[in-house]
Amino acid sequence: MSTSSNSPYHHGNLRQALLEAGLIILEKQGEAGLGLRDLARAVGVSPAAPYRHFDSRAALLEALAVTGFQRFSARMEAVAATRPDNPMAAMGKTYVVFALQNANLFRLMFSPQLKKDARPGLAMASSAAFDTLRHVVGGDVGAGRIKALAAWAKVHGLAVLLLDGQIALRAGEDTEALIGEIISSL
Amino acid sequence: MSTSSNSPYHHGNLRQALLEAGLIILEKQGEAGLGLRDLARAVGVSPAAPYRHFDSRAALLEALAVTGFQRFSARMEAVAATRPDNPMAAMGKTYVVFALQNANLFRLMFSPQLKKDARPGLAMASSAAFDTLRHVVGGDVGAGRIKALAAWAKVHGLAVLLLDGQIALRAGEDTEALIGEIISSL
């Protein structure tokens, strides 16, 4: 790999550095604050440099969402690997906590703007992210599929209601404890 | 009530006409297309006229959300009044269908932008909207509250996943039938 004359990054490293900086900007400022020029400034390269890796802002957002699904998958696999007594509850809690810890990334991953149909890389990352969950719940057809969709709806709804400030915590109440209680209750 | 010299509306009628036009613009163009001037043009009054009823765009959005919660309440009460065999399932389906039929209004009702804490009228309308659901699920404290939050999370999650195009329908599959199956399955 060659080093660009005006960049301190090797080719592959720059892509990774752009994604890391992008994730930080996304969480701090929201999707609106995220442009390829801002990103170039953040990692200290020329304004044109990010275009070697992402041909548009949409391509950058897609790559960030893919990264999000990969991290989400890794968390799900890690939880399943601990062989919890109640895998559904453990994975459900992990889902909601991931959403709260990565609010803007989570919103981006499930944004209707990102057309999964038109973007095979994103569709694959998103589908792979749910493999572990699907495996635990019981498949992709018939009653298994309905059960998986119901489980998904529950944890996704809880994540969204908490993210959007719709569930009011009682005085002294701990968010993670409440998440655990709600997920165990159905 | 007096009629304004430059308006075909009685005072109370103009407020109602502005809200009706606002709901139509909201569904057609989304929240971004909704300004007090657009609204004045839509109902055929002077640009200043809407300010007699809403002192800002935020006040208009709040009034639209309140209207949304009132319509939502009426639907929930109507379903409960039919004494369905499974009230939770019937109300859950009504919740999701309301969201799909009033997509932008539903998003507005649960938007984190609208600060319910700071707006007593909105907080009251929103709380009243859930009275019927709370009554069926079993209360507002202890295990009843947790059960109510879990039921809410499930139907809200299903609504959001469908609105955001995250759940792919199979060929020939009917959305309402799928909603019914998912809600019955947990």
TrEMBL record, chains A, B:
SUPFAM superfamilies: Homeodomain-like, Tetracyclin repressor-like, C-terminal domain. It comes from the Bacteria. The keyword Chloroplast does not apply. One of its GO terms (molecular function) is transcription cis-regulatory region binding. This is Transcriptional regulator, TetR family. Residues 35-54 bind DNA. Coiled coil: none annotated. PROSITE patterns: HTH_TETR_2 (PS50977). Pfam families: TetR_C_33 (PF13305), TetR_N (PF00440). It comes from Devosia lucknowensis. InterPro entries: Homeodomain-like_sf, HTH-type_TetR-like_transc_reg, HTH_TetR, MT1864/Rv1816-like_C, Tet_transcr_reg_TetR-rel_C_sf. The keyword Ligase does not apply. Keywords: DNA-binding, Transcription, Transcription regulation. Residues 12-72 form the HTH tetR-type domain.
